[in-house]
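Justification of computing resources. Each target in the renewal requires a structure prediction run like the one illustrated here; the chain below, 193 residues long, is used simply to show the kind of job we budget for.
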Amino acid sequence: MLVTSFLLWPAPVPAGGGESSGPDFRARLTPCCDAPDSHARGAARRKVVVKEDVVRADSFMAKVKLPVPPDGLAAHEPEPVEVCLVLSRLGEPYARCVLAPEEDDGEEAVGATGQGGYEDDEVDTYHVKLGTVTKRGTPVLRVKWGHCDVDLVTEGVQPGVPDVHPGDVATVSVFDPASSSSMEILQGTFVEH
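Resulting structure tokens:
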């Protein structure tokens, strides 16, 4: 158990004021789950910042680009699709995030490389971006886009930063209200960066 804790929370480096960055886990989200040949793509990341043995910030973000309409689903105008990311460990889901559609800000997708064979005006981008920062010893949740339920056992939404570990799997699904259909389209496994 001590070895696992050491791997997940590296010891701070004493030089430079005792500042250290903690775990940084990333997943590249690629087509999966018998979805049609998809041009969807995305990435997810959890980053923890540790200073003087104290967690100062803990953030989670994911960004997904989908063709319009998403491959395999009916056209979704005028009602947008709902994009969800489910996190699981050893096959058991433990957190669910709902991604919010991005307003056009010219920002490139996390991990995007221009692949996919379509122009940017033919895609919709969805995000979840949230984190906690420690203020006077108390973690404060800040949300920029979307939201995450970090306790799927308890009824209702328990907002927070998902406790992602290496080997956890992120699965993105799309629900299209126009056709009342849902499809898993992307998946990736978190690795330490």
